[in-house]
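tl;dr need the bound structure. longer version: we got a ligand (threonylcarbamoyladenylate) that a collaborator sent over and nobodys looked at where it sits. i said id run it. heres the input, straight from their email, havent touched it
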Amino acid sequence: METLIHNLNINDLDMNAIDEGAAIIRKGGTVVFPTETVYGLGANALAETSVNRIFHAKGRPSDNPLIVHVSNHDMLLFCIGEPLSEKAKKLIKSFWPGPLTIVFKKSKYIPDNVTGGLDTVAIRMPNNKVALELIERSMVPIAAPSANISGKPSPTAPEHVISDMGGKVDMILLCSDTVVGVESTVIDISGEIPIILRPGGVTKEDLEIVLGEVNIDPGIIEKNASPKSPGMKYTHYAPDAQMVIIKGKNISSKILQMAGADIRQGLRVGILTIDANKDKYKGLTVISIGGSDEEAAHNFFNALREFDKIGVDKIYAEALKEEYLGLAVMNRMKKAAGFNIIEI
Ligand code: TXA
Ligand code: MG
């Protein structure tokens, strides 16, 4: 199919392009748009046939539910089938618009294919002007997964979107690279103690300031456990190369040793590291994801795609500390590596 592409400037938005996108959404089509986390592949969340087009474009399994994006309070209330709890009010006040997705009981207006047949719906208000204008002007909530081919790293830059979604959607709205770089945090607040179903842009530490005790779904930590959030069970973010995570002390000497053995076997090796360590791998194919957790989150998915472009057979990745945004990055890294972790 033909895909209309608009390049937008965040400081001087072309509102005609966004209105065109809104019209496509209302007519049942698909529009890729930027959010603060990753690019999303959107369609009218209230129309079953429109939502089907999302699954088709991504090649996504139909039991993996979508996040519904709203731009105002009335839209939120329209989508949920319960009164707003005190916890929800606190979260919304503290983190919306922003990278936090809250799971609610769904209203009768949300079709079953949005929720993968669940009676709950995941909702967030994104903190990106293009996204908010697109939703507001569409006048309907927009269901949107990350705009990557299912199983590939989420798109954080215009070029990722073009290569994954060009020819598969009605319109692509491009803007700059996304800010956060990992997806939103998904939280279930239905029980006594809130549970993080997917770590993301809002950290556990931030959530605890607002909610008190917060748990992490044990299903997302172990390879063979079953996660509460359906999407977390799929292999994800997989680069073409085999990836191994190295964790512990003095990891660079261990990585150099293993990389040497691989290189002698004729393999092309890539190393994923941080700024503080990158000089230890001089002469090798090295990508640093930066000097802070924020930079690591911002750069991680792009680094995976860069390794694909360079063409390597094996990637050694240095583990980050699993706290603050490092928890979200490590969750993606483990999935990208198929939980292949060597602890020293
Ligand atoms: O930052 C983001 O969240 C991005 C941008 C585009 O907003 N979207 C995104 O969507 O990451 P997606 O489809 O790639 O991931 C949605 C996640 C999946 O893990 C899915 O299982 C979970 O949210 N989810 C959706 N509805 C749910 C529900 N009712 N209960 C539990 N988990 C749900
Ligand atoms: Mg995704």
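gonna send this back to them w/ a short note. The two ends are 50 Å apart (CA to CA).
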